[in-house]
TrEMBL record, chain B:
It catalyses: [PQQ precursor protein] + S-adenosyl-L-methionine = E-Y cross-linked-[PQQ precursor protein] + 5'-deoxyadenosine + L-methionine + H(+). Its cofactor is [4Fe-4S] cluster. InterPro entries: 4Fe4S-binding_SPASM_dom, AdoMet-like_SPASM_containing, Aldolase_TIM, Elp3/MiaA/NifB-like_rSAM, MoaA_NifB_PqqE_Fe-S-bd_CS, PQQ_synth_PqqE_bac, PqqE-like, Radical_SAM_PqqE_MftC-like. Keywords: 4Fe-4S, Iron, Iron-sulfur, Metal-binding, Oxidoreductase, PQQ biosynthesis, S-adenosyl-L-methionine. Residues 16-232 form the Radical SAM core domain. One of its GO terms (molecular function) is 4 iron, 4 sulfur cluster binding. [4Fe-4S] cluster binds at residues 30, 34, 37. Pathway: Cofactor biosynthesis; pyrroloquinoline quinone biosynthesis. Gene3D superfamilies: Aldolase class I (3.20.20.70). This is PqqA peptide cyclase. Interacts with PqqD. The interaction is necessary for activity of PqqE. Catalyzes the cross-linking of a glutamate residue and a tyrosine residue in the PqqA protein as part of the biosynthesis of pyrroloquinoline quinone (PQQ). Belongs to the radical SAM superfamily. PqqE family.
């Protein structure tokens, strides 16, 4: 069964018009996300599992080739950073 | 492209970044008397605080300019009865809201009510790992017990927990105990912040500054604790801020003057950092100008932008765009001229003042009874001369 990523309590993902990018906010800190990190985390809604996220991104970026390995590696990294839980 | 980049260069000649971080110092009132408080020495002179409507206007303007992180601080922000209203407004505007508190005046009911209003995070500060020392430094007999209870309430309400300890020569030996206490309380982040010598801490520097030997031991203990936490699979993060008095190059203070941080003091004075009020510079007030004019156009906020203002040795230094010559407040406090290189820098002709402070720390004998505590009575002494 595929894992469902969720943001950890205290982490908030949102679009910032002034910075023209998605950011991840946490206690007294902020990470500016590049385009692909923002696109991946934008799919994290606590319902979609990793396979569904990959499928959704694949649909949004049909010319990008197989996104699966990169998306999985990014989500694992995000878990290591304690931004998200994978359960 | 950021909003700041989008402005014509004539309106933003120094290409200042937007104020992504807004610190709202709601009040200078505080039940504690910590002798390293960053508030101005003459804080008691400021009695008029912004109204709820004025603060809400500041929050709206800041958010429009791109501010995303918001700190409610003070003094003790909990003494403001309108705090729930300000939190709710901040959340509605899309801020990530941080409450920076001593825990005094907090109750379990308020912890829960703030969460319902949309507060993202509560940072509780401690003065030590045991009640005796904690309460002696805080100048309050019941502080420690209250802080413990509130740290537990913050955790129980599901907030991410950041515990802050200001470190100095009288508690630096407690590092392992402090870290143990934080782990027991279930902290996510622990800030072990060695005193920065501004405001009351500058006044008390000799009695606060740890020696190099104390600092080295504390660093070794923090590193050992980090390794232990990692081995146990703990997600608790330790952030150890060491005093710049032991560095040879200055810090890139506030990421540059008027480049990221905007502080609004209780009376509405807008500042590029919470210490800048001590500088002999006229800073604008949110009651007189809108925040955009303050940030991009006011002489106070443009004073140290760019590097045209720098004298030697900064002017010809190849590191000037990295550290901006260090901290203006530190330059002013230690050399009497805020334009000078931060004396932390070994290239500064005033570096000897830092070396003298280090030597003094090796031989300091001052105890807690020698500290000037931060309270209204002592504050009045500073502005009555």
């Amino acid at each position: 069964m595929s894992q469902i990523p969720r943001f950890r309590r205290g982490f908030r993902f949102q679009w910032e018009p002034a910075q023209d990018c998605y950011v991840l906010l946490y206690p007294e800190g902020m990470v500016k996300l590049n385009g692909s990190a923002g696109a991946i985390l934008n799919e994290v809604d606590g319902r979609q599992d990793v396979d569904a996220i990959v499928a959704s991104l694949q649909q949004q970026f049909p010319e990008a080739g197989d996104l699966g390995p990169d998306v999985r590696a990014f989500l694992e990294d995000a878990e290591q950073q304690h931004w998200i839980d994978l359960s | 492209m950021t909003r700041a980049d989008a402005l014509p260069t004539s309106l933003n000649p120094n290409n200042a970044g937007p104020p992504l971080w807004l610190l709202a110092e709601l009040t200078y009132r505080c039940p504690l008397q910590c002798p390293y408080c960053s508030n101005p020495l003459d804080f008691a002179q400021t009695e008029q605080e912004l109204t709820t409507e004025q603060w809400i206007s500041v929050l709206r303007q800041g958010r429009e300019m791109g501010a995303a992180q918001l700190g409610f601080s003070g003094g003790e922000p909990l003494v403001r009865q309108d705090l729930p209203e300000l939190i709710a407004e901040a959340r509605k505007l899309g801020y990530y809201t941080n409450l920076i508190t001593s825990g005094l005046g907090l109750t379990e009911a308020r912890v829960v009510a703030f969460a319902e209003a949309g507060l993202d995070h509560i940072q509780v500060s401690f003065q030590a790992s045991d009640p005796e020392l904690n309460n002696a430094v805080a100048g309050s007999r019941k502080a420690f017990e209250q802080k413990l209870a509130m740290a537990k309430a913050v955790k129980a309400a599901g907030y991410p927990m950041v515990l802050n300890f200001v470190i100095h020569r009288h508690n630096i030996h407690q590092m392992p105990d402090i870290i143990d206490l934080c782990e027991r309380l279930g902290a996510d982040y622990v800030e072990l912040a060695t005193c920065q010598y501004y405001g009351w801490a500058f006044e008390n520097r000799e009695a606060l500054m740890p020696s190099k030997a104390q600092l080295d031991q504390a660093e070794a203990e923090v590193n050992a604790s980090r390794a232990g936490l990692q081995a146990r699979g703990s997600a608790m993060k330790l952030i150890f801020v060491t005093p710049d008095y032991y560095e040879e190059r200055p810090k890139a203070c506030m990421n540059g003057w008027g480049n990221l941080f905007l502080t609004v003091a209780p009376d509405g004075t807008a500042l590029p950092c919470h210490s800048a009020r001590l500088l002999p510079i006229d800073f604008p007030n949110v009651k007189d100008l809108d925040l955009r004019e303050i940030w991009y156009d006011s002489p106070g906020f443009n004073h140290y932008r760019g590097n045209e203002w720098m004298p030697e040795p900064c002017r010809s230094c190849d590191e000037k765009d990295k550290d901006f010559g260090g901290c203006r407040c530190q330059a002013y406090l230690l050399t009497g001229n805020a334009d000078n290189a931060d004396p932390v820098c070994s290239k500064s002709p005033h570096h000897e003042r830092i070396l003298a402070a280090r030597r003094a720390a090796d031989h300091a004998t001052a105890g807690l009874q020698d500290l000037v505590y931060r309270n209204v009575r002592n504050s009045r002494l500073f502005f009555r001369g």
